[in-house]
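Below sits the subject:
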Amino acid sequence: RSHSPNELNYWWIEYGGTLDTIKDNEKIKEELTRILLGVWDHIKNRGNHRAENYTLDWIGQVVGKRESRRFIGDYILTQKDVEEGTLFPDRVAYGGWPIDLHPPKGIFDPGPPCEQHRLKDIYSIPFRCLYSKNIENLMFAGRNISATHIALGSTRVQGTCGLLGQAVGTASYLCKKYGITPREVYKNHIGELQQLLLREDCYIIGIKNEDPYDIARDGKVSASSCKPLGVEEFTFLSPVNSSIGQSFIVTSSRLDTISLYLSLKDELTVTLSTYKVDSLRDIRLDRLIARTSLPLKDVNGWVDFHIQKDIEPGYYLFKLESDKSFYIGFNSRSFPGIQRIDFSSEFKIAHGVYAFRVNPPSYPYVPENIINGISRPTYYGPNLWISDKGLPQRIDIDLPQRTAINTIYLTFDTYLDSPEHSRDVPEPECVRDYVIYCKIDGENKKLLEVRDNYYRRRVHRFEEIESDGISIEILGTNGDPHARIFEIRIYRF
């Protein structure tokens, strides 16, 4: 099998798919060790693998099982559910990894080491897949859930397994609280389970915060400022050799211009087509709003494409194409409420954003987003407040009447769209320094102050106090010039 000198390229050292992965565990371990030592011998003694100064330091002795025994629950998740994105009423987690199937013969199979079938969207996983059909007090999470072999090819990855574990742990709390079985949780308390998961920062497709104990839901929200739609800062100028696009949210009923930062020297014609779409990931080009072609030469700056249309607020997409190559401002970090499209790519949905702005301004990052019930960006909205440039900034929640409170939940932006699996620095978007004030008779009383934060979720508990509302002053971030908050919850526990 061909390979390159990269430690990430040896995941295909697999064996045991045709054996009993439970009874033959030791046999599989010994054979895998033999195979691994053979691969290491090849790396050290054959070919030019640049491994002269490397040594084999450690070999694990616990076999990692991609798939083994699975339990049967009240429902068995299927390939159809995963591919079609079935929205189960008892959904408690989601997945999105491709259906990733590996040959049973592993390293001895002459074919490719895996086949990945991409999904069109994320899908939900029902609670009924996480408890036993015939053992009333047994729940499970991870690679043993009630799913078919094909469906497990997607659900088995660690991120999804972690969500399943949190769902089962939370359900265990309800079982103890009410003295009931997991099946009774499904029948009588599934809404409570879902709301508890949301409170602890889980995401459940299409389920919003409806926690009756969250006092903030009835409040009136205001802020010192609000950022308009657009990305004017860019990391570098990116070459454009084929059709590109970007979807975005318009909150006004008029679209006069879309402006892009372009750079070119030779004379060429650039065409921008604007379409109405149903979400930020909808790439269907069947509802043309306007098409504008501009002859350009020797440009390095903002170019205005005139649309001049009355429109409905909603989701829109522009497609940009030309008869020659040129450059466009590109920001390597994605931005909520904006989705870059690469029409030349197999997967279309792409990371990062193009520098652009619209006129008249749109405002999808309003303060009210912090109590809209969704605490992370989706393809239907950014779901967070973003201030204008400059710090400090402030956001307020005024309660309908004076209320006793003792707990505040804050959810900040830690850049969940990052393509990197591991980062060792705080995300620039995350609020670093802030002060929480309690409102009493029109005055702000300082409740607490936090410095050097880098967490997405902060829960502040304090002595109970009668309050007319709260005010949060953002003094600094970890680098971004805007203040950002996804969600604020207020409780009296």
